[in-house]
């Protein structure tokens, strides 16, 4: 018999590192999700920029089912056809010539940072080991990746942290000039900061970061775990920055919810992860790879990518119209379908109220920090779902403003 579980069960059996909301979704289709009570939600969150083709996409379900009948897992003692096909496709679509598979964004970044150190070690020496990243950045939750990440709250109490890591203000080239040196092995950045508040890199800044890296013989690592695989309207966001990184990491949308991550690089740099230097039990698992292959076959089309740009306009227009009525946002920004709406100063800190009320209204949204509402819906969300969801968002705003004014 299936055990009966409720939200209360969470507090009885789970480590309290999350504080999930009361709803327990049980089914999803496209950009709609239903909970145990049959209540329907429009999904503007996409599982935090993950379900880029929505829920239960028939092509992905079929790819997974077919592979499930064939082969689940071997090990990296042998290779497998889905992994090789996926790697080929990723190299065809990007600057990269070599691919390493992992199971998450954090693991892809862990591999990227280890590779950057190892490459510098091989070509210069152990003193060239410093990594520079940016405040507010997010790169994962392993000890190395939280330390590279620019949010001190995530490393507090977990020290001693790995050394040789420095942080710089994002979009501040003068500060970076003061930090970078010949001891720098890598500069790590998100082309658009996701968790940090949906903050895009300035084009001129990105270009100058590339030049500084070249001048100091440091690798440029782009963390595209959130921005990649069509999210910003190009297959990877770097294409829009006009800057090519040396190492790029991907995850989230790559598996549409099936755990998979990838680190992409050039042949020359890849050679520093020589036989035996790094690995993963599940990385390159055929189930994950067959799904990721189907994902990129669909997302990599002009139809889907141009659809992202069109939907971006619909969202921005809709949010501006709401803002004209309620004056809640001081900035509406983002790229493609990674959209941030920053609350006006009078509402600072109230992001979580909008988040909580949106669920009551039948809408799933995200926040990025205390002041920014973040939307990261499916890249193929139907226009009528955008419209209906924005109506629910407007109702959310109405209720939150009413509640706050009566307090
Ligand atoms: C989500 C995210 C990660 C971490 O990915 P996990 O799969 O949770 O390990 C890393 N970098 C960025 C930019 C992310 O948005």
Describe the protein's topology.
Blueprint lengths: L6 H7 L11 E5 L2 E4 L4 E4 L2 H4 L8 H13 L10 H13 L4 E5 L2 H19 L6 E5 L8 H6 L16 E4 L4 H7 L4 E6 L2 E2 L5 E2 L2 H13 L3 E5 L14 H4 L5 E4 L10 E5 L1 H4 L15 H14 L2 H25 L2 E7 L2 E6 L7 H10 L2 E2 L1 E2 L4 E4 L7 H23 L2
Parallel strand pairs: 3-15, 5-6, 5-7, 7-10, 10-11
Antiparallel strand pairs: 1-2, 2-3, 4-12, 8-9, 11-12, 13-14, 14-17, 16-17
The chain binds pyridoxal-5'-phosphate.
The site of pyridoxal-5'-phosphate (PLP) has 15 residues, from helix 5.
N→C terminal distance: 47 Å
Give the helix proportion (percent range).
Answer: 25-40%
Structural class: alpha/beta
CATH H-tier superfamily of the largest domain: Type I PLP-dependent aspartate aminotransferase-like (Major domain)
EC number: 2.6.1.11
Cofactor: pyridoxal 5'-phosphate
Binding site for pyridoxal 5'-phosphate: 138, 223-226, 281
Enzyme class: transferase
């Amino acid at each position: 018999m299936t055990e009966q579980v409720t939200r209360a069960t969470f507090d009885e059996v789970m480590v309290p590192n999350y504080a999930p909301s009361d709803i327990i979704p049980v089914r999803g289709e496209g950009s709609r999700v239903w909970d145990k009570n049959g209540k329907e939600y429009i999904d503007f969150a996409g599982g935090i920029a993950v379900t880029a083709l929505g829920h239960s996409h028939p092509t992905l379900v079929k790819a997974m089912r077919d592979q499930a009948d064939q082969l689940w897992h071997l090990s990296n003692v042998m290779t497998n056809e889905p992994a090789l096909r996926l790697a080929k496709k990723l190299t065809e679509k990007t600057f990269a010539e070599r691919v390493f598979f992992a199971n998450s964004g954090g693991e892809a970044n862990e591999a990227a940072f280890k590779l950057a150190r190892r490459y510098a070690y091989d070509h210069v020496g152990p003193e060239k080991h410093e990594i520079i990243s940016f405040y507010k950045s997010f790169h994962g939750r392993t000890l190395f990746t939280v330390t590279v990440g620019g949010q001190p709250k995530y490393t507090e109490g977990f020290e001693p942290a790995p050394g040789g890591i420095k942080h710089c203000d994002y979009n501040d080239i003068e500060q970076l000039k003061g930090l970078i040196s010949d001891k720098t092995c890598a500069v790590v950045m998100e082309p658009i900061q996701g968790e940090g508040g949906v903050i895009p890199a300035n084009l001129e800044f990105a270009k100058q970061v590339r030049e500084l890296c070249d001048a100091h013989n440091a690798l440029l690592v782009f963390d595209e775990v959130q921005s990649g695989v069509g999210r910003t309207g190009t297959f990877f966001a770097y294409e829009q920055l006009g800057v090519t990184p040396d190492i790029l990491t991907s995850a989230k949308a790559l598996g549409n919810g099936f755990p998979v991550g990838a680190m992409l690089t050039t042949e020359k740099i890849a050679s520093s992860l020589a036989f035996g230097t790094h690995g993963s039990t599940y990385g390159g698992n055929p189930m994950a790879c067959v799904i990721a292959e189907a994902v990129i076959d669909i997302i990599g089309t002009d139809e889907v990518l141009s659809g992202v740009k069109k939907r971006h306009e619909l969202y921005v227009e809709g949010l501006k119209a709401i803002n004209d009525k309620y004056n809640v946002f001081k900035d509406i920004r983002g790229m493609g379908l990674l959209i941030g709406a920053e609350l006006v100063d009078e509402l600072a800190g109230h992001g979580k109220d909008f988040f909580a009320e949106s669920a009551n209204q039948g809408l799933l949204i995200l926040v990025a920090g205390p002041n920014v509402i973040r939307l990261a819906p499916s890249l193929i969300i139907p226009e009528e779902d955008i419209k209906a969801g924005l109506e629910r968002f407007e109702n959310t705003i109405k209720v939150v403003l009413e509640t706050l004014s009566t307090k």
